[in-house]
Amino acid sequence: MAAVLDSFTFHSSPSSNVLRGLRPPASPPVSATVHRASLPQVTGLKIQFSSKKLSPSLNSRNLRTSRRRAAIVSEASETALEVPSVTDATWQPLVLKADGPVLVEFWAPWCGPCRMLLPVIGELSKQYAGKLKCFKLNTDDSPSIATQYGIRSIPTIMIFVNGEKKDSVIGAVPKTTLTASIEKFL
């Protein structure tokens, strides 16, 4: 964002203060004052553009128009490791019949805390490679498994050893909390 807007300029004059309901200074300046301020440098964020087609309306007289939208997104989401998904069909071989401990995050795409936790699960997957398998289960796509294990709140992280549930952590917790739970079963 800092590359797009390096600085901004705004003008102030006695008349603009009056318009805002403020008293003019005792001795108004002859000309308007120009203030120039620099924006702070920001790293880790970028602007992502997308265009959205608008449907024709009565005001546009059936002309197709497009609106360009921008959003500020975190670059961390692009660099985070992708955590493999598990579904109803793959639950048995990947989790219940796995050798060693398995961490499963029960999540949904609309859940903000769940999306915050996914990069942490990716880091844990990398940190414990070869010792721990990490998966994510979308509770909207596989509600039967979520019901089977009594998932009532997401995000919920469960640790399975030899197909048996050993521990669960509910909510978006710090990485240190998850690390302490994992260390008990390694």
From TrEMBL:
PROSITE patterns: THIOREDOXIN_1, THIOREDOXIN_2. GO terms for molecular function: enzyme activator activity; protein-disulfide reductase activity. Residues 12-32 are annotated as: Disordered. Coiled coil: none annotated. Residues 70-186 form the Thioredoxin domain. The keyword Transmembrane helix does not apply. This is Thioredoxin domain-containing protein. It holds the Pfam family Thioredoxin. It comes from the Eukaryota. PANTHER family: GEO12009P1 (PTHR45663:SF11). SUPFAM superfamilies: Thioredoxin-like. Keywords: Disulfide bond, Electron transport, Redox-active center, Transit peptide, Transport. One of its GO terms (cellular component) is cytoplasm.
